[in-house]
Design a protein that fits this description.
By secondary structure, this protein is an alpha/beta fold. It is 26% helix and 22% strand. It contains 5 helices and 11 strands, in the order E-H-E-H-E-E-H-E-E-E-H-H-E-E-E-E. It has a 7-stranded mixed beta sheet with strand order 2-1-3-7-5-8-6, with helices on one face. A two-stranded antiparallel ribbon has the order 4-9. Strands 10-11 form a two-stranded antiparallel sheet. Strand 10 and strand 11 form a beta hairpin.
Length: 185
């Protein structure tokens, strides 16, 4: 499955790390999309970056689309394949991980944070595109669909400088108590 990756061209450091991740997991079917920057509202640029890929998928009548941010980190060898094999039959968004939110026994979340790596079903394209852009996209999506999380998590964010928050971020603290996929399938 093709991965649509949002990337800011000026973040050469992220591209080097991203390329290493993709190579280590033998992933060659991907497309880089230029991230959109909004100098007034950072969240608006991020939202537009994700929505542009959804619009492309809708226009091309794709059944689903896999979107990633360039700071992705696979949790173990075989994580990408595991993520794909665990994909549920019924979902609006299928997430590789989340940073906030309670996961039900059926791996469903209503309120979450984290759009590092996820698949959107075509039945949800219109709802996704209608979400307001003035705040964090993941927070604006909450309670608007059926969101299923891969459990254990297969992709997390690399720690590092965040263009969104304008500071170094260590997201590992949000993974406390979460299960991570650690090995081959």
């Amino acid at each position: 499955m093709r991965i649509n990756i949002i990337h800011l061209k000026n973040r050469v450091d992220r591209f080097v790390i991203l390329k290493k991740e993709l190579d280590e997991h033998q992933i060659s079917d991907y497309v880089l999309w230029d991230g959109i920057v909004d100098s007034n509202i950072v969240e608006k640029g991020i939202s537009k970056s994700h929505k542009r890929i959804i619009e492309h998928a809708k226009k091309n009548e794709l059944k689903e689309v896999l979107i990633a941010e360039d700071d992705l980190k696979f949790t173990g060898r075989g994580a990408f394949d595991f993520f794909l094999t665990q994909k549920p039959l019924d979902f609006d968004i299928y997430l590789a991980s989340i940073y906030m939110g309670n996961i039900s026994e059926e791996n469903i979340v209503k309120d979450f944070s984290g759009l590092t790596f996820y698949i959107v079903s075509n039945k949800f394209y219109d709802k996704f595109l209608q979400v307001p852009e003035h705040d964090n996209l993941d927070r604006m999506l909450c309670n608007r669909g059926k969101f299923v999380v891969c459990n254990p998590f297969t992709v997390i964010q690399q720690n590092g400088y965040s263009d969104n928050k304008k500071m170094y971020c260590d997201n590992d603290v949000f993974l406390k108590g979460r299960k991570l996929f650690m090995g081959s399938i």
